[in-house]
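Sample entry (105 residues):
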Amino acid sequence: MPGPLAVIPRMRVQPVAVREAARALTGLAEGPAQGMAPELAGPREEWLLDMVRRLLPTRPERRFVLPVRYPGAAGRAMAGGGLLPTGPGPRGMQTFDAWLADERG
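Predicted structure, serialized as tokens:
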């Protein structure tokens, strides 16, 4: 988002590395037909706000982080862990911190 503010929802996420997501999706596409795909997620839960606060210092532009709670049912779901996996499925290995270290070089 352009501008001096980074408006970040208060929510927990379980981020998965793009390479790991691509590998899992390729496996599903090349495999036999199945019903619902298993829930793919990263190795651990993170607060999105904490992730952004760790990421922003690695970027050239400076921004003020403004945590918000989105209104309505969607906001309640996000704040309550609604984007976290609820069932079994593959879990990635690369943590956000490992990805961030790789980005820094």
